[in-house]
Design goal:
By secondary structure, this protein is an alpha/beta fold. It folds into 2 domains: 15-264 and 470-487, 3-Layer(aba) Sandwich (Aldehyde Dehydrogenase, Chain A, domain 1); 268-459, 3-Layer(aba) Sandwich (Aldehyde Dehydrogenase, Chain A, domain 2). Helices cover 36% and strands 20% of the residues. The protein has 14 helices and 24 strands. It has helices at residues 2-7, 52-69, 74-90, 92-103, 107-127, 166-177, 191-207, 221-229, 243-255, 278-290, 310-322, 342-357, 408-416, 431-438, and strands at 13-14, 17-18, 24-25, 32-36, 43-48, 135-136, 143-151, 155-158, 182-185, 214-217, 236-240, 259-263, 268-272, 300-306, 361-364, 380-383, 399-405, 420-421, 423-427, 447-450, 462-463, 466-467, 474-475, 484-492. The strands form 6 sheets. It has a 7-stranded mixed β-sheet with strand order 3-2-10-9-8-11-12, with helices on both faces. Helix 14 (431-438) links the parallel strand 19 (423-427) and strand 20 (447-450). Helix 4 (92-103) runs antiparallel to helix 7 (191-207), helix 5 (107-127) runs parallel beside helix 6 and helix 10 crosses helix 11. Residues 158-163, 167, 185, 187-188, 220-222, 225-226, 229, 240-242, 245, 248-249, 263-266, 297, 394, 396, 422, 469 line the site of nicotinamide-adenine-dinucleotide.
């Protein structure tokens, strides 16, 4: 473990506030955050939390750096992101391993998360030459009208524990080519990954003889997170986390008329029709519901299955679940690691009990696995007669609820009858059914897949969801527009002043 930490520039105790190259600040009065390995309960390291003094230093540096960075032509900003992508490539394995160690996801998923960070850097490099604005035809003769996009300012990025790196990269790579500086408040559960990433950005900023573009503030949500949310110097807060915290953040930022990008919880379902390919469905459900121990925002939590195949599918799923090896996420054979902490385990066990108290039938799992470690649980399948209020909640754990349906319309209604609207999928071999699911009356989610599970989105598309998921979009497509301010420009190149809508406003000196 020590050699891994060394490779990533980490020590036993690390500073948690940074405003750029060589900019680590001591936080004498800030307190310490302890990072523990959820697999063993051992301490991996500690990080100093940002104090109010270091907060001010970081914010003023990020604001000052913004004034310089916004003047750098965006294709040149892209060069820095190209080098960031390459630096992440060099650190693919160790950073992936640290994510697995600190968060508990299996190594291929940890490495995959870093790959996603690299992919978004590549995307952002191309984007740096494509921050296009539209040109419009003016209704007035001799007038030209167009829109241009300017950087918005230092952007606050607050992230969740389950993806300690990728959501930072989705925000940071795009915001940086847009000309913004970034102030990151990572989850207090995964602070070492954040410090390791900051070390990588420090090296890249130093190579470019710049500082203050990527900044870090380690600390608790209600203290440092809250301060950032209330800070008027931050025009945009991009928040990834639970619906309950997101609701508070959204209200507070709205009170100061700031902007938010909200990426909140999901309660994702797969509809399985009578003509679905069962082999494909089983593989997708297994990855979607067991992957990351059910701790992905896009985890498959509900399965809505045609009644004619529900028993067959359940049998196949039980068989597949029984083959899942549970254990140390760094072992090659492991498919499911631990839950992140005791709170997550007890939330899961409470949900299982509530489901059983409400006519649920336990088909698989439902228990702790203390022989492996205190945070290990069995992936769980519960058959429900109907979609109860419990099923409509996001329990951040590997519980899969199975309901059945007769008519596609009922399946789509059940699918949409939850407060969240992140990811959705249908398994079918009938094109009409697939198109029905994708039509305006079909899935109400931000992501809708056909014959692909709910988790594992690519960076090229805009990522995010509707309803209680918050409505934000990050990553690919035109999500970059969220990190810039739009300016509509009209130029009159004549000696006349025609008014729009044909209004005549003539004084006595005119005809
Ligand atoms: P959380 O809401 O507990 O914490 C998220 C972040 O908010 C952390 O950095 C935390 O310190 C901070 N925070 C807490 N209180 C705050 C406050 N008052 N002001 C400002 N910041 C505050 O979420 P979590 O348990 O870390 O993550 C799991 C949740 O995140 C799940 O609901 C999951 O679905 C969601 N999530 C969503 C996405 C997405 O893209 N939609 C991605 C990952 C996770």
């Amino acid at each position: 473990m020590q050699s891994l930490l060394q490779k990533l520039g980490l020590q036993a105790n690390n500073r948690g506030s940074c405003f750029g190259s060589d900019g680590w600040i001591s936080n004498d009065d800030g307190g310490l955050i302890i990072s523990t390995n959820p697999t063993t309960g051992e301490i991996i390291g500690t990080v100093e939390t940002a104090s109010s003094k270091s907060y001010e230093q970081v914010l003023s540096e990020a604001s000052k750096s913004f004034l310089e960075w916004r003047e750098v032509p965006s294709p040149q900003r892209g060069q820095l992101i190209r080098d960031l992508g390459n630096a992440l490539r060099e650190n693919l394995e160790p950073l992936g391993e640290l994510i697995s160690l600190e968060m508990g996801k299996i190594l291929p998923e940890g490495v995959g998360e870093v790959q996603e960070m690299i992919d978004i850097c590549d995307f952002a490099v191309g984007l740096s030459r494509q921050l296009y604005g539209l040109t419009m035809h003016s209704e007035r003769p001799g007038h030209r009208m167009y829109e241009q996009w300017h950087p918005i300012g230092p952007v606050g990025v607050i992230t969740a524990f389950n993806f300690p790196g990728a959501p930072w990269a989705w925000n940071a790579a795009i915001a940086a080519v847009c000309g913004d500086t970034i102030v990151w408040k990572p989850s207090e559960i995964t602070p070492l990954t954040a410090v390791a990433i900051q070390n990588i950005t420090n090296q890249v900023m130093a190579e470019h003889e710049t500082r203050g573009i990527f900044n870090l503030l380690v600390g608790n949500g209600p203290s440092i997170g809250q301060t950032l949310v209330d800070d008027k110097r931050i025009p945009l807060i991009s928040f990834t986390g639970s619906i309950s915290t997101g609701r508070k953040v959204s209200k507070q930022v709205a009170t100061r008329l700031g902007r938010t990008i909200l990426e909140l919880g999901g309660n994702n379902a797969i509809i399985v029709t009578q003509d679905a390919d069962i082999d494909l469905t089983v593989k997708a459900v297994l990855f979607g519901s067991v992957g990351t121990a059910g701790q992905r925002c896009t985890t498959t939590r509900r399965l809505i299955v045609h009644s004619s195949i529900v028993d067959k599918l359940i049998n196949r799923l039980i068989e597949a679940y029984a083959s899942v090896s549970i254990g140390d996420p760094l072992d090659d054979n492991t498919l499911m690691g631990p839950m992140v902490n005791e709170g997550a385990v007890s939330n899961m066990l409470n949900a299982v009990q509530r489901a059983l108290d409400n006519d649920g039938i336990l088909l698989y799992g439902g228990k702790r696995l203390p022989e492996i470690g205190s945070l290990f649980v069995e992936p769980t399948i519960i058959r429900m007669r109907e979609q109860t209020p419990l099923v409509c909640e996001e329990t951040f754990a590997p519980i899969l609820y199975i309901m059945d349906y007769e008519q596609l319309e009922d399946a789509i209604n059940m699918h949409n009858s939850v407060p969240q609207g992140l990811s959705s999928a249908i398994f079918t071999s009938n094109i009409n059914t697939a198109e029905n699911f994708l039509s305006v009356g079909g899935s109400d989610c931000g992501i809708a897949n056909v014959n692909i599970g709910t988790s594992g989105a690519e960076i090229g598309g805009a990522f995010g969801g509707e309803k209680d998921t918050g409505g934000g979009r990050e990553s690919g497509s035109d999500a970059w527009k969220g990190y810039m301010r739009r300016q509509t420009v009209t130029i009159n190149w004549t000696n006349d002043l025609p008014l729009s809508q044909g209004i005549k406003f003539t004084g006595t000196e005119q005809d």
